[in-house]
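Human: Can I borrow your eye for a moment on a structure tokenisation matter? Separate attempts, laid side by side, tell us more than any discussion would. Could you pick a protein and write out its sequence and tokenised fold? No explanation is needed for now; the record alone will do.

Assistant:
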Amino acid sequence: MLSGASGAAFFTRRRNVVLLATLCCLLWGSAYPAIKSGYALLSIGRDDTASQLVFAGYRFVLAGLLLLGMARAMGRPVLALSRGDLGRITLLGLTQTSLQYVFFYVGLAHTTGVRASILNATGTFFSVLLAHFIYHNDRLDRRKTLGCLVGFAGVMAVNLRSGQELDAAFTWLGDGFIVIAAFVLSAASIYGKRLSQQIDAMVMTAYQLAIGGLALSLAGHATGGALQGMGVAASSLLLYMAILSAVAFALWAALLKHNRVGMVSVFNFLVPVFGALLSALFLGEQILAWRNAVALLLVCGGIWLVTSDRQPAPSAATPAG
């Protein structure tokens, strides 16, 4: 990726923002069916949390190593980190990768890919609320408040029966954990945006993925987790997931570094859309049920209300303090 003034110009050009953010969301959307397919190939049961952590850990360690190799080949300052920088990156990795994916992987094992992709969109609203207290030009107003209400109505719609009552299938271990994962990711991403102002975004992303993935692997193995049946199909899937993580997280970190949180987060509406479509395509999950259709429309409408900007604002967000 580019750096310096040329990098800032590249990542703030509107066409590039649209294309790169859409690519990130497509890759993240594909992770939903990929993870569940990986569980099937490796015989990981929905209650086998330890093996799920090992699976996640291997994915992110490999992603981090791939990204570090790319950064080194591009002449990035891979080894020029101070002790303080390494400590801050470690904190980012343990939250954005380790803690978030503990909730995400366990939650995904207890819900469908379609539901998970919709519920994970709540991360956009968390980002908007957090940005309100951090950035002067991302204040919460009536339009954003309405968007949050509409979006969360979409989250509720996916759990409603025809009798307008909450679906008994809703569980904290499944759907609840997906929402918690979305919050952790939102908070950690804003923290990562701040770090990227002092540390190369690509190097920062590589280390946080590797450190977070290592923590997941160790935790999984320590609690009895293991991967069985790592054949060609499973290995290829793991490699794909590592590549998608390396590419998506590195690009997203660069976009956040050079643009306002709201401007970038508007594209998150594509994650549930891609996730639902790809889950339906590869897993045979139902996508045309009225609840899923209404939920997707409400979530997308809410995100549009939250992030659409009627007046131009500076591309660089200013911290509130």
Remarks:
- Confidence is low (pLDDT under 50) at residues 161-166, 311-321.
- The CA atoms of residues 53 and 130 lie 28 Å apart.
- The first helix runs from residue 4 to 12.
- The chain is about 75% helix and 0% strand.
